[in-house]
Design goal:
Blueprint lengths: L1 H24 L3 H6 L5 H21 L19 H8 L9
Helix pairs in contact: 1-3
């Protein structure tokens, strides 16, 4: 599932950059690379960007990919000698 999310986000980024270029500079990068807006490869890219947008929209409200709750605030932090006391590791400190 992580791979599918990564692919969808990548395609959405490509689509966003392409739309930004169209909006600001009237330059369609996808059609320039793949041979025009009616070329088969351009239409495939446009279709994949659209499908990834629909996929990501459906997962947006379903809770897929929500961050796991972090309970690290409730944990005690171990520093220096506390680590050795908690885990039974004894260190010898040499005076120099």
């Amino acid at each position: 599932m992580k791979t599918l999310h990564a692919i969808a986000v990548t395609l959405l980024i490509i689509g966003g950059i392409n739309w930004g270029l169209i909006g600001f500079f009237q330059f369609d990068l996808v059609s320039a690379i793949f041979g025009g807006q009616t070329a088969v490869l351009s239409r495939i890219i446009y279709g994949l960007v659209g499908i990834s947008a629909i996929y990501y929209l459906t997962t947006l409200f379903s809770g897929v990919g929500e961050p796991v709750r972090d309970d690290s605030d409730n944990l005690r932090t171990n520093f220096g000698t506390e680590f050795s006391e908690d885990y039974g590791i004894e260190e010898e400190i040499e005076d120099k």
